[in-house]
Write a structure and sequence with these properties.
single chain; mainly beta; 4 helices; 18 strands
Length: 380
């Protein structure tokens, strides 16, 4: 867990803000991000804003509380800021919202946290720590909505044999900006399912790192995103296999529609020398629904040992499948319905993998609403 990461895609971390100069956009980790649209999060804009509400729905057996930085256990995941935004949040945040599921606690209902931005000019710094004790099991859903310029650091600590499903939903207003830096550490024989869903916001940039604190751990990262005209959605993922007999699987799917819709997916897996017997696979698929969109997809594998069970990656960006459309049209299905069915088919297997019934139903409805904005509006 404490091993230093040596990768051009993941700069050396530091708590000292002076070690993180203001990015210019020429750096590898920033080259896809439109810095001017970050509203100064990467520079020196104030992070003292408090224009947001938090609503928590939690079943019995779990502790949810906002504690001062001094009284918190932030950093428990091994979190060290790796860019200027996360370093600024670390310095500026005054409290940590903590979700603590004790040892052997099995939650039958999810913990649901709804963050609602209230607008305003001041940017916000937030911190979240989700901690599961040994053999605990929980689902945590965090939904973002409203308007805000929001930067946060998020930590996950999954104890030995524990099982955490974490779902983050970006349902922001069209003018929102959200930069999130996240780090997870997964214990011996523990499981983390990290699910990211992004629909709203002007600019959303998530950088997620996951590593292991013992053999036998399993990490699954699932993502679904839908970018509209002018929207920038960026997901950067890093799985650090630093323990033997560990597993990881990454599957992200996105759709784009409208002029200057831009999505970025950067996937990287590091397999260290000591990580013998691991299995890993990462995959990104993008469906372009109209002209004027652009999807960047960059999978990476860094392998330091050949003693592994399997490793691979795949990436593809394509338009509507003309053969599928022809097949449906030839059987009397209208063009509007054919296009709707193709997009739902594209997302369907991923939505089913989420395995949180309330989320699955709402995602299907939201995909339908997104389609109505552009792809289907010109069809009777």
């Amino acid at each position: 867990m404490g091993l230093e990461v040596s990768s051009h895609l993941h700069p050396v971390g530091s708590f000292d803000l002076s070690d993180h100069p203001v990015p210019t956009g020429r750096e590898e980790v920033w080259r896809f991000t439109p810095l001017k649209r970050l509203k100064g999060l990467h520079d020196d804009v104030s992070l003292a804003g408090d224009g947001f509400d938090v609503k928590v729905e939690a079943p019995a057996g779990v502790s949810t509380d906002r504690v001062s930085v001094a009284d918190s256990t932030r950093g428990l995941s091994g979190f060290i800021p790796t860019d200027r935004v996360s370093a600024r949040v670390w310095d500026a945040a005054t409290s940590v919202f903590t979700i603590d599921v004790p040892t052997d606690t099995m939650l039958s209902e999810p913990v649901v946290v709804t963050v609602t931005g209230q607008g305003g000019d001041e940017a916000i710094a937030g911190q979240l720590l989700v901690q599961l004790g040994r053999h605990a099991k929980a689902t945590v859903v965090v939904r973002f909505q409203g308007s805000a310029t929001f930067a946060d650091n998020v930590e996950f600590v999954v104890g030995e044999g524990a099982q955490l499903t974490y779902v983050t939903i970006q349902d922001w207003a069209d003018d929102a900006v959200h930069h999130s830096t996240q780090r997870a550490v997964v214990g011996r024989d523990a499981t983390l399912r990290h699910i990211a869903v992004t629909f709203g916001g002007d600019l959303v940039r998530h950088d997620v790192t996951a590593t292991y604190d013992g053999p036998g751990g399993s990490i699954e990262m699932l993502g679904l995103y839908f970018a509209d005209a002018g929207q920038h959605v960026e997901h950067r993922l890093f799985v650090d296999h630093n323990e033997p007999k560990t597993k990881s699987n990454v599957l992200y799917k996105g759709a784009l529609q409208g002029q200057k819709a831009h999505t970025v997916w950067i996937g990287n897996v590091l397999i260290r020398k000591e990580a013998e017997g691991i299995e890993t696979y990462e995959e990104n698929r993008n469906l372009v629904l109209s002209d004027g969109c652009h999807a960047d997809s960059v999978p990476n594998l860094e392998i330091e040992t050949g003693e592994i069970e399997g490793a691979g990656h795949a990436s593809a960006t394509a338009r509507f499948d003309d053969e599928q459309l022809f097949y449906l049209r030839s059987r009397g299905v209208s063009e509007k319905e054919s296009r709707r069915l193709v997009v739902h088919g594209f997302f369907n297997d991923l939505i089913r993998k989420i395995a949180v019934p309330e989320i699955e139903e709402s995602l299907t409805t939201t995909v339908e609403a997104e389609l109505a904005k552009n792809v289907l509006k010109d069809f009777a």
